[in-house]
Amino acid sequence: MELRDLSDHVEYRAGRGIEEVARELGRDPAEFVKLSSNENPHGPSPKAEAAIRETASEVHRYPKAVHADLTAALADQWDVSDKQVWLANGGDGALDYLARATLAPGDRVLVPTPGFTYYGMSARFHHGEVAEYDVRTDDGFALTAERVLDAYDGERVVYLTSPHNPTGHRFTLDAVEEVADRADEDTLVVVDEAYGEFTDAPSAVSLLDERDDIAVLRTFSKAYGLAGIRLGYALTPPAWADAYARVQTPFAASAIACRAGTAALDDDEHVEQTVESVKWARQYMHDELDARTYESHGNFVLADVGDATEVAEAAKRKGVLIRDCSSFGLPEHVRITCGTREETERAVAVLNEVLAE
Fold first, then answer.
1. Separation CA 129–CA 110 (nearest Å)
2. Parallel, antiparallel, or unpaired: how do β-strands 292-293 and 232-235 relate?
3. Which of 54, 104, 224, 225 could share a disulfide with 264, CB 3.0–4.6 Å?
4. Per-residue model confidence as pLDDT tens digits over 114-168
5. In which band, very low, low, confident or very high, does the pLDDT at 29 lie, cut at 50, 70 and 90?
6. CA 201 to chain centre
């Protein structure tokens, strides 16, 4: 037999890990700092760690009760009903559920370029088609409703990443509403707030009570430091109450993920430490890096270094892993995750050395 035609599908390429790079170079992993994948440098919430250990003896049970517990906790946090919370295996899982709920074969989605590859991947998995709107360097990567609407042509789903990866910019709530207002009544606007904890802008969740054409994506991978357990969720309009049960996989998030997520929600100190650390690191990179940087509302900074591949490779040889943004279509830019103070200072020192050579 033959597989379906996958010629339009692309591979999601995650940043390489420390162990992988250390093996390649024949060096000790302890020599490296990884600032390439926007992970939390402070690790997971200590409360989540404890919950993970305590749940280990219970993983022979299906996660029905703990799924309900986390759903209720998130509903309480965001002041929505339980049925508006769609738990998933990572933010990408939530994107798949939204695609299942909205896309018929041949429907088009509108995605940012550069942007998160999985928007288009998920649409194609569900037999949709993909159009793009540009986030351009010539205006400093500004994110405006006009930029999106200039490219809009009746797409079924429009993706707005706010804060945007890899640039760090964000949409205002007014811009989100303008896109939704001017789009067709059957268009869903998905606001991806994976980095939402790192910005002081209000969440688009505040719009859900008034509208049925906006959904918001959130994750535990960034501020909560739980990337490895794969836990994310969508917050959807009240009118969608019955849809989640029809599109989710059986037990959409594991028992360990649900327990860890519930515990992490109760650890304000860990999130506050992470957010304050990110604010410091962003400012330090803006002030000290010998390259143009862009305003960021995420846990990373984008820098124009001239030749991203050359700079990223040179930094790697010196023990600092950063993201070459050539894969985003930005061959002159690198993305540097906000690390601890020690990690951030080391990364800036190494990059300044490389840039001076």
1. 9
2. unpaired
3. 224
4. 999 999 999 999 999 999 999 987 788 999 999 999 999 999 999 999 999 999 9
5. confident
6. 16
Q: How far is CA 58 from CA 45, 67, 208, 255, in A?
A: 21, 14, 36, 8
In which order are the strands placed within the sheet that holds 292-293? 292-293, 300-304, 333-337, 323-324
End-to-end CA distance of the chain: 55
pLDDT digits (tens, 9 = 90+) for 283-304: 999 999 999 999 999 999 999 9
pTM over 0.90? The answer is: yes
Rounded CA separation 316/21 (Å): 8
Same domain, yes or no: 148 and 175: yes
Domain that holds residue 250: 47-265
Query: How many distinct structural domains can be found in the chain?
Result: 2
Q: Please spell the DSSP secondary structure of 172-214, one letter per residue.
A: -HHHHHHHHHHS-TTPEEEEE-TTGGG--SPPGGGGTTT-SSE
Judgement on whether residues 122 and 193 belong to the same structural domain of the protein:
yes
